[in-house]
Amino acid sequence: MTATLRPIEHTPPDTTDHAIIAKGYHRPDLLVSTTWLAEHLHDRHLRILESNEDVLLYDTGHIPGAQKIDWHNDLNDPVQRDYIDRVGFETLVRRLGIDESTTVVLYGDKNNWWATYALWVFQLFGFTNVKLLDGGRTKWEIEGRELTTVTPVFAESAYIAKERNDAPIRAYFHEVHEHVRLKKPLVDVRSPQEYTGERTHMPEYPQEGTLRGGHIAGAVSVPWARAANPDGSFKTANELEAIYAGEHGLKPTDDIVAYCRIGERSSHTWFVLTYLLGYQRVRNYDGSWTEWGNAVRAPIVKGSAIA
User: Fold this and answer.
1) Which residues are catalytic?
2) How many CB atoms lie within 10 A of CB 20?
3) Domain count for the chain
4) How many CA atoms lie within 13 A of 274 on its CB side?
5) How crowded is residue 133: how many other Cβ atoms within 10 Å of its Cβ?
């Protein structure tokens, strides 16, 4: 079912959310709570986007007013392994009825893996007025909040996209190789079994063609899920600091690269370190293990020891 066409309006919503502020984050303005979103569902200057691993999930029911982001088709180049270019991003954002004045709230399944992935891609193009729903689809459903199968339709915008700038938040293979040589911090956010090389894929997921198991030399293992509560929401800043700084000695001034399998789980950790804890230089290596584990002579370590 499709809803009536809605015009674009230009009055930004007040996104002050005291439930989020109380958690002590460096940038609480990058999150909204389920309560805040429920109270603002009818703000016409707000756009809600759902980005799921399961691209069919949206059609079974979604938050009222939410539009679908298909990470396969909307964010990725259809030919080479890369993201859409400036024209592609501009076309997408216009279709969604979004412009520079629009506040965007992203959410999704899997504790917001693919929502943080979409947010990360938006930021490659300098679109920063985008936030995450703390807890994502999981928390919204646990709380028994409203879902609908009505697909909203908004008037197309006249948004002009900036050129994509990967350098600040994206790392490429050759850069990670140099990172290893310089012994700079690397965070492997995969499962412990993937880190040690016992598995080449996530538990209960298919093998995706990676030839070698293990981890990048020098990487520490901090599974992404340690940052989340059972309801999918983020742990408090103090709890997160105890994990990343207390257990692993990471510092806000470190030059950090996070990686996983294809960049979706590590985008979650990138968001945590950058916006919840205020780390100044964190990049997501989206080539991740499907690139590194297949690369000729890429340095790999098996087992739990850091090398």
Assistant:
1) 260
2) 23
3) 2
4) 23
5) 27
